[in-house]
């Protein structure tokens, strides 16, 4: 796997769009597209930004042989996880469905079908 493939795969794992990356680290969409397709290598500045937004080391981007950095949970996320763990399995399923509906509404995608 090359540099561009690793960047693209990690971006998709984190559900980050190319636009989010370009706006956050200040590179052009054409530059990022070239990096992900393997036509260009990222500059030092782009490497630093990609490392931060993708939560990976620069070594991992360039060589693929370092660990992916852990994304720390916020206090709110930890609180939500603690609540979730205290629920029954059916309540957990219900909460996951609610989260999927909220996400679908926020992204303008089709709301998932469910049966009662």
Could you characterize what this model shows?
The protein is mainly α. The chain has two domains: 61 residues, lambda repressor-like DNA-binding domains (434 Repressor (Amino-terminal Domain)), CATH 1.10.260; 33 residues, no CATH class. It is 65% helix and 0% strand. Helix 1 packs across helix 3. 14% of the residues are buried. The model has no long low-confidence stretch (mean pLDDT 88).
Q: Can you describe this structure in just a few lines?
A:
Helix content is 65%, strand content 0%. It is an all-alpha fold and 116 residues long. The longest helix has 19 residues, at 89-107.
Determine the strand fraction and express it as a percent band: under 5%
CATH-scheme architecture of the largest domain: Orthogonal Bundle
Strand runs, count = 0
User: Helices and strands, in N-to-C order?
Assistant: HHHHHHH
User: Would you identify the regions where 5 or more consecutive residues have pLDDT less than 50?
Assistant: none
Structural domain tally: 2
At the fourth level of CATH, the homologous superfamily of the largest domain is: lambda repressor-like DNA-binding domains
Please count the helical segments: 7
Shape: elongated
CATH domain class of the largest domain: Mainly Alpha
**Which bin fits the share of residues in helices?**
55-70%
What integer is the average pLDDT?
A: 88
């Amino acid at each position: 796997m090359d540099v561009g493939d690793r960047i693209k795969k990690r971006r998709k794992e984190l559900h980050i769009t190319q636009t989010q990356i370009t706006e956050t680290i200040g590179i052009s969409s054409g530059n990022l597209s070239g990096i992900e397709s393997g036509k260009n290598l990222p500059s030092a500045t782009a490497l630093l930004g990609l490392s931060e937004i993708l939560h990976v080391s620069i070594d991992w981007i360039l060589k693929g042989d370092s660990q992916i950095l852990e994304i720390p949970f916020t206090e709110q996320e930890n609180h939500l996880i603690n609540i979730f763990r205290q629920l029954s399995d059916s309540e957990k399923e219900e909460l996951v469905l609610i989260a999927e509906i909220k996400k679908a509404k926020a992204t303008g995608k089709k709301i998932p079908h469910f049966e009662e």
